[in-house]
Amino acid sequence: MKQRIIKALLEMNFNDGDQLPSVRALIDSLGTSSATVQAALRELEASGLICKIRGKGCFWGKAPKATRIPQIQEKGIEKLAKAFDRDFAQGFLNPSRPLPLSKELSTRYKVSSATLRKFLAEKVALGLLEKQGRHYHFKTGLYKKDISPLSEIIFVTRCNSWGGFKAESERELDFLRLIYKTAGRDHYKLTLLGFNEASGTLIDRSGMPCNLSEHPNAVGIILSTLLVQNARPLLYFFSNTKIPVAVWWEHPIDSVPRNFLRKDNWLFFNSTFGKQPGKEIGRYLLGLGVTEAAYFSPYHGSSWSRDRLAGIKESGLIVHPYVDDEFSSPWDYKEIARKRNEKFSVEILTRTLEKEKLKKLAEQAISFQAKNGKIIPWICANDEVAGIFMEMVDENELNLPQPDICPTFIAFDNSAESYLLRIPSYDFNTEALAEQMFYYIANPQAFDGIKKIHHILGNVVEK
Predict the structure, then answer these.
(1) CATH number, span 151-271
(2) Contact 426, 382 (CB under 8 A)
(3) How far apart are CA 270 and CA 254, in angstroms?
(4) Cβ pair 20, 11 in contact under 8 A
(5) Which CATH number fits domain 276-427: 3.40.50.620, 2.70.70.10, 1.10.260.40, 3.40.50.2300?
(6) Among the CATH numbers 1.25.40.180, 3.40.910.10, 3.30.70.20, 1.10.10.10, which is that of 2-60?
(7) Ramachandran category for residue 390: left, alpha or beta (phi over 0 → left; psi -120 to 50 → alpha)
(8) Cα(345)–Cα(340) distance, rounded to whole angstroms?
(9) Where are the beta strands (DSSP E) in 82-215?
(10) φ, ψ for residue 455 (rounded to 5)?
(11) What predicted TM-score, i.e. pTM, was given to this entire model?
(12) pLDDT confidence bin for 49, thresholds 50/70/90
């Protein structure tokens, strides 16, 4: 494949100084991985046919003159700002706790103490940080109404026709728990409302219709769109409010209604969609010296599964996909199970249906790896997939070429199952999600200049 890429580029008849297509464009047009494209470009560069210019791309022949394409050097304080923002998005910098001491921050960001002091002083001048003794703190409470006895936050989730709610995943239950915990710590009165999608109504937990005008003491709103199939009606209930609205957006990024992105008092928080989780998994494996892996998903009808695969590829890892796009999520399998045989419980039948899909995908992967004489890590779309594979290994249901040697598994979700199975798994950082939603409500000015979709970064947790 590398030689095919080189041949294709040679046949494009570039002139000296012409810019080559981007790596992303070559991946899409030639149907290959990032690692293979990069290998082809390195070979062309070594032979003197192309040159690379940092921050600009690849060019045919010798490098264009500096007057045509200047090489931009990023300043130390700019690198520091990016690293600081990443640590905030990843939850390392928690708005409810003091920042690490300056010496620790200087070491972490590889900057001088003078550069760090200048950066932190700018944050203080902007009203985002304040200094108390040796410590810097995030400044909170710039948006507070003088309301007694408690300021109220409206928390809205999906619900059934009578206002009932049942968490469908560990992550959703964690989110609910963390919202209550953080509200209690910050002395907010939390009012839980429900959105019933079937009737399109907003109701309280006793099943009675309600509206925002009944809550004049509300200083902020937190909306969960998880398992709300069409979130627009939920958003429109609060479209005219002037208080901060923080939305946990559990849908494709490009499906956020544009008119809400233009509202100054709305911010959308994303943790699971997009390519970033896949990139983090890829970086983790590359850091271990792994260069090649397989990706398994029985939910590839979803954008999140496709994005994770794209992210793994963009990380530079060579990846072999084994996917099925009939369904989009574990809940699709649950719906099928509910309509099927009543003699099974929903959970048992759901797992059986997923197992049937995964067995076919595993057979393809095992056949490929046996022919190539290697065993590579298996990246699973979630912990449940990894658990099913390990169950099949224990029950000798996988025709492994070496029965005593099974693949290494890595997954997404960091659920309780990943701890029981002791597999590394990507944590979507629900704690940082809840923490930063409250920080936005208390201090919306802190997010000025940040994109209206704020991405929470997670990390791989080893067991």
Answers:
(1) 3.40.50
(2) no
(3) 11
(4) no
(5) 3.40.50.2300
(6) 1.10.10.10
(7) alpha
(8) 10
(9) 129-132, 135-138, 151-158, 188-196, 201-204
(10) -95, 120
(11) 0.76
(12) confident
The 10s digit of each residue's pLDDT in 313-330 is 999 999 999 999 999 988
pLDDT in tens, 391-428: 999 888 888 877 667 889 999 999 999 999 999 999 99
Task: Please state the φ and ψ torsions of residue 261, each to the nearest 5 degrees.
Answer: -70, -20
- The answer to whether 29 and 23 have CB atoms below 8 angstroms apart is no
DSSP 31: T
Lowest mean pLDDT among 166-175, 290-299, 426-435: 166-175
CA 404 to chain centre: 35
DSSP string, 369-408: HHHHT----EEESSHHHHHHHHHHHHTT-S--SSTT----
* Residue indicated by tokens 């003159």: 65
Interval 99-118: pLDDT, tens: 999 999 999 999 999 999 99
Every domain of the chain with CATH number 1.10.10.10 lies at 2-60, 77-138
- The phi and psi torsions of 250 (rounded to 5 degrees) equal -105, 55
Start-end of CATH 3.40.50.2300 domains in the chain: 276-427
Of the options 1.10.10.10, 2.40.128.50, 3.90.1150.10, 3.20.20.60, the CATH number for the domain spanning 77-138: 1.10.10.10
Taking only Cα atoms into account, the Rg of the chain, rounded to an integer number of angstroms, comes to 25
User: What's the pLDDT score for residue 252?
Assistant: 93
Task: State phi, psi for 268 to the nearest 5 degrees.
Answer: -100, 135
Contact 378/407 with Cβ under 8 angstroms?
yes
In 3D space, the residue among 106, 234, 122, 226 whose CA is nearest the CA of residue 176 turns out to be: 226
What DSSP line would sit under 402-446, residue for residue? STT----EEEES--HHHHHHT--EEE--HHHHHHHHHHHHH-GGG
pLDDT in tens, 120-174: 998 888 888 999 888 899 987 644 444 445 689 999 999 998 888 888 889 999 9
pLDDT given at position 434: 96
Q: Which residues of 136-172 are buried (b: 16+ CB within 10 A; e: fewer)?
A: bebbbeebeeeeeeebbbbbbbbbeeebeeeeeeebb
